[in-house]
Amino acid sequence: MSQKKRRVRFAPSPTGPLHMGGVRTALYNYLYARQAEGDFILRIEDTDSQRFVPGAEEYIIESLKWCGIYPDEGVDAGGKMVETPSERHPHAPYRQSQRKPIYRKYAEELVNNGFAYYAFDTSEELDAKRKEAESLKKTFTYNHITRKGLKNSLTLPKEEVERRLAETNNWTIRFKNPENRVVKMDDQIRGHIEINTDTLDDKVLWKAADGLPTYHLANVVDDHLMEITDVIRGEEWLPSLPLHYLLYEAFGWEESRPSFAHLSLLLKPDGKGKLSKRDGDRLGFPVFPLKWVNAEGEVSRGYREDGYYPQAFINMLALLGWNPGTEQEIFSLDELVKAFSLDRVIKSGARFNPEKAKWFNQEYLRMQSDEELAKEFVPILKENGIDTGKYSMEYLKQLCALIKERAHFTNDFWTISHYIFTAPQSYAENDIRKFCTPENLENIRKVKDFLEKTEIKEAPYAKKEEAVSVLEERLTGYIKENGWKMGSIMNTLRLFFVGEAKGLGIADIIYFIGKDEALNRISAALEKISIER
RNA sequence: GCAGGAUUCGUCUAACGGUUAGGACAGAAGAUUCUCAAUCUUCAAAUAGGAGUUCGAUUCUCCUAUCCUGUACCA
């Protein structure tokens, strides 16, 4: 079995930050290529000079890098991402603006062979036509009927056409759709699709104004030249698939026409419609892989900055619109490469669920070693003004081992364990009311004396488990001896140590903050609360 | 409007035409420890509607509804 080497491409346009839906498209392309031991190409479709956004290309490259998606070929934006220098590669360059000289001859070839024509209508004229049609509740289409009444090389005298081509540049080359023909197409995800060409309009392929092709021409020509075998792209392209088929036919490239797979859209978590930047702002989750600041200084959060592991992000995205057919949900990139298949990609739109995204990250967090987590914790502590020099790596490892069970993100570590590092500044009102009865306060004084006399091993101690359980036994033993209620004593202590009735076990807390600090916190709390009364 | 596409628990999804329609997230209840979380157990929750084909439709066909995409000299 000798199959051609698979070549796929991800071809975003640099009009802004890469949306997570785009990352998913890139990921599926990447997985497909890796599995087939083919090539994954990154091409930049910047044929719209109007909408070009500075920095967007760099953003795309950095995002893919963060996700661990490395192209085999593609734009090299100064990074080490692409091994082969772009200039030397036979398929280079990979930025369509740099391929500008290539396209015109292809557009003209189509005109010469009768598959396209020159059109001289101005945007204003066409807009007027569209408005007119709209008022009649119809849609204006530039097709085999209307083109007879418009200004183009099919209707104008030859000399006039030549004069306009030579003297002006406000003309375009349009595709000449065949009349009443059924185009038969196949999609790897959606199956067989048929459409009548009479419903199509004569799309602009090339614009004289800027000498650039539109998406349709550039895309087909580049995919052909770059020997792309499979086009895996978003569903928004499905309606233009017939045009692309017709273009391959007109060029005589049907033999090497790639196979197509159209991915469904990512939908917003609530309501209707596709996932947009606004939804993230509104519902409080990122829609972009990385943080992005636009020209107006507006900030959009990113998965990276929100503390997601790239593997978790990728894993979540992979399962949004695809599943392996088994009950496995956690996949490494390599496992995804092995398991992925286009025929298990879902046809319908997938609603994004931020809660599930958090769950994925939690799963990955738990897979990290305590040492890795401790290393991640250090900068977070510093941000919160903690002198991390005071804590050994062993100390932090022991703490992380305990708190990782309660977190979705390493960013949560501070919220969960701040009281280990700083004494509470205030105490929750309702917890004071609940636990600080005169009787309880009296008992706590006795507990304090007891702790003072007790030998306590502090963090980091080699036999941590043992140290904590010994302390716990002594403490609970003492409380039981006196016939006090376990809950009230423990929770009062917790209130004094933490500031509220939350957090780790009392023995754990004392182990981590140490005997002196524990005693200090009890004294401070007793003083403060008796003053307030 | 027209053209395409889509439609299984709230959400992501599984089910060669024959299953008590399965799993996960979220939710609820219980167990558990000194609290909170975590954990464990249990519960609740779906084939858009209508015709047809068939011994039998989530699955095939048609119609309706709803949603999405496209309808640019944007991608």
Structure description:
With 533 residues, this protein is an alpha/beta fold. The protein folds into four domains: 7-94 and 265-355, Rossmann fold, CATH 3.40.50; 98-263, Glutamyl-tRNA Synthetase, domain 3; 368-421, Helicase, Ruva Protein, domain 3 (Orthogonal Bundle), CATH 1.10.8; 429-532, Arc Repressor Mutant, subunit A. 45% of the residues lie in helices and 10% in strands. It is built from 20 helices and 15 strands. The protein has helices spanning 20-35, 56-67, 100-112, 123-135, 158-167, 215-225, 241-251, 277-283, 310-318, 333-339, 354-367, 370-383, 393-403, 412-421, 429-435, 438-453, 464-481, 486-498, 506-513, 515-532, and strands at residues 7-10, 39-42, 73-74, 116-119, 172-175, 182-187, 191-196, 204-207, 212-213, 230-234, 259-263, 266-267, 292-293, 299-300, 350-351. It has a four-stranded antiparallel sheet. The protein has a three-stranded parallel sheet with strand order 1-2-3. A hairpin with a 3-residue loop joins strand 6 and strand 7 (191-196). It is elongated, with a radius of gyration of 33 Å. The protein starts with 6 loop residues before the first strand and ends with a helix. Mean pLDDT is 91; it is low at 77-84.
